[in-house]
Write a structure and sequence with these properties.
Helix content: 25-40%
Structural class: alpha/beta
Radius of gyration: 23 Å
Strand content: 15-25%
Strand order of the largest sheet: 3-2-1-4-5-6-11
Largest sheet: 7 strands, parallel
Shape: globular
Distance between the termini: 52 Å
Number of helices: 15
């Protein structure tokens, strides 16, 4: 069977792909940037990768006509555009029009639970997309999920950040809102078992775990799982804007995503019924079991996908190739080089940089820079990294985005996503027995030049100390 997988580089898509391959299907992966899409070479015979932007009809023409089933996993949780709800509807219309020209016999859509009478803008947008897909001529299956719990999910990361960083929490009253969390493994099971299953055609189903909890209870259960004592007090006076800033400064989320989450968290997301559990023979695990599994994956550094690596987590725009060539003209460049003793040792240290490992020298200054970035509305340094020693193009390293990573070649290029009056790159490359390190800054106007000269005194010992640590 030939399956179209949209959102193939997303949190769900990356995890669904190997399951579909394991079931013997051929998968056409829709991505906006091929350079951000990486998969094991063993899967190559079963995968076709095409670049598609569902707001651009010209690229939608790249979708082959011999598709049997299509997964629609496209969302705009960050709401980077003010009219993102309109854009999502337009994309859904284009998608349906294209599917009508193919052999597709089913569309499967992962949406959000929309049982409350008063929906947030994001949930309303998802419901609108669902209606568009359901109105098409191809049988559609909609699976509506609430909070998804798994290593690397946005909800899980926010819960973890709050519990780890705040022994005592003064929280908004929406922490008493009820929800029905579901484990990522169960979401994937529902998605795969709905495939070509006639009992799911032209229907919408709520999917959730067996527990109905408040967000406060979810935080406390996480604290219990980590054997931490936490105290949570809710107050009725915190406005949505203050709540968004609270999430933004304490957790690794972006402000736009925090705003979207706050508006959605005020709405109860509880399943109306669980009939699909019987129809598909799925028995969802408890919230506590989902937490335990996620924590094991983190401890084993076995995180398949993370929301942080999606483009909505930062300021990165465009394809990686646009940032691959580091400019030289009209740029300020801090260049350093050192003879290396052990090539493999140095490469391993470079590939472990950022996150929990840090930047090897003057980490307190890097942390301060991250804090200042948060103050001015940037991404900060709390995003960390998905894997401790593995790097792929498109991945996040604190407030950097990986644009090139070739371990055999010994070359790594990072692009800054922090708030800057210009653009910045950090480059490492090994040629023969020499490590070359370059920090490049392309200023924008007078403010850009003033910024470079204001931080120049720190470069001497930050970048000098870092390259020395990389070779020792």
């Amino acid at each position: 069977m030939k399956i179209l997988l949209t959102g193939a580089t997303g949190y769900i898509g990356k995890r669904l792909l190997p399951l579909l391959i394991a079931q013997g299907h051929d998968v056409v992966c829709c991505v906006r940037d091929k350079d951000r899409f990486y998969y094991p070479e063993t899967l190559t015979p079963k995968i076709e990768v095409i670049e598609v932007d569902f707001l651009d009809p010209k690229t939608i023409a790249n979708i082959p006509s011999d598709i049997d089933v299509a997964y629609y996993l496209i969302h705009s949780m960050s709401g980077s555009a003010a009219n993102y709800n309109e854009l999502e509807s337009i994309a859904a219309h284009y998608f349906v029009e294209k599917m009508n020209t193919t052999k597709a016999r089913q569309i499967i859509y992962l949406s959000g639970i929309v049982n409350d009478k008063s929906l947030s803008k994001h949930l309303s947008s998802r419901k609108a997309v669902e209606d568009i897909l359901m109105a098409g001529t191809i049988p559609a299956t909609t699976l509506r999920a609430g909070i998804i719990v798994g290593s690397g999910s946005a909800s899980f990361e926010i819960i973890r950040d709050l519990v780890y960083k705040l022994p005592v929490m003064i929280t908004p009253k929406w922490l008493n809102t009820k929800c029905q969390p579901i484990a990522i493994t169960d979401v994937l099971e529902f998605l795969t078992k709905s495939l070509f299953n006639p009992v799911t055609y032209n229907q919408s189903f709520d999917i959730g775990g067996p527990d109905i909890l408040t967000y406060k209870q979810m935080l406390l259960q996480f604290a219990e799982a980590k054997k931490l004592k936490r105290y949570i007090f809710t107050v009725p006076v915190m406005t949505p804007k203050l709540s968004s800033y609270w999430l933004y400064f304490v957790t690794s989320t972006s402000y736009k995503l925090a705003s979207a989450l706050v508006s959605s968290m005020k709405v109860e997301v509880v399943c109306k019924d669980n009939r699909i559990n019987t129809l598909l023979g799925v028995k969802p695990i408890t919230y506590k079991q989902a937490l335990d599994r996620a924590l094991i994956k983190i401890n084993e550094d076995d995180i398949v996908s993370s929301w942080k690596d999606s483009l909505i987590s930062g300021r990165f725009k465009g394809n990686l190739m646009h940032y691959l060539k580091v400019p030289k003209k009209d740029c300020f460049i801090d260049r350093r080089k050192r003879e290396i003793i052990d090539r493999e040792f140095t490469i391993e240290k470079i590939w472990s940089i950022g996150g929990e490992t840090g930047w090897y020298y003057a980490d307190w200054l890097w942390s301060m820079r991250g804090f200042m970035d948060k103050i001015f509305g940037g991404v900060g340094a709390r995003r960390g990294r998905t894997h401790k020693k593995i790097i792929f193009p498109g991945d996040v390293l604190d407030f950097w985005r990986v644009v090139y990573a070739d371990k055999k070649q010994g070359k790594l290029i990072l692009y800054a996503e922090m708030k800057l009056p210009g653009e910045a790159w950090l480059e490492f490359k090994i040629i023969h027995n020499t490590l070359y390190q370059a920090a490049t800054f392309r200023p924008q106007g007078l403010w850009g030049k003033l910024y470079w000269y204001s931080v120049l005194p720190f470069h001497g010992f930050i970048f000098n100390g870092m390259i020395n640590k990389l070779i020792r």
